[in-house]
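Journal club side-thread
Mid-discussion, someone asked how the predicted structure for our own chain would compare to the paper's figures. Pasting it here so we can look after the session.
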Amino acid sequence: MVLWVVLGIAIVAVVYVIGVYNGMIVARNRVDESLSDIDTLLKRRYDLIPNLVETVKGYARHESETLERVVQARNSAISAQGEGLADRASKENELSGTLKTIFALSEAYPDLKANQNFVALQGELAATEDKLQASRRFYNSMVLSYNNKILMFPGSVIAGMFSFTKRDFFELDVTEAAAAKKAPQVKF
């Protein structure tokens, strides 16, 4: 009788461990999938930027320094693909900052602002930026869920046994985060 009880407890424990392990695998795969979604949107962003730069070049020939900074930031972000998440996030934040300068140029050049190619590219890039922001939030949500699974007891014991490691969040630059938290000023 005691043997059956011990055997029953052992079977329940094994089934529990398998369930927790499988849950961690699913969570890790969701993190990987959401990071892949970010990579897809970044690729789209990288593809749009040269077209936008070429359109602006036609109108703002003497703004070459601004355009070169955008191209350099794009190339830096592309080269960061094999680096750690923190380095990638830093390069992406730098690229976002330089893109803002191109949109600021459109205010200085009314003809550029009215150019259909520029307007279409600006709209596509803005939509891509919105999707990218949503994908980052989704990724961070998946990372939070995964990290909770592997850090909370008893999952932490199982995670340690099977070498599950904590994942990093895709974070904003400190100055960008501070600017995002700052209340907008309304002036009339």
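Post-session note: The chain is about 80% helix and 0% strand.
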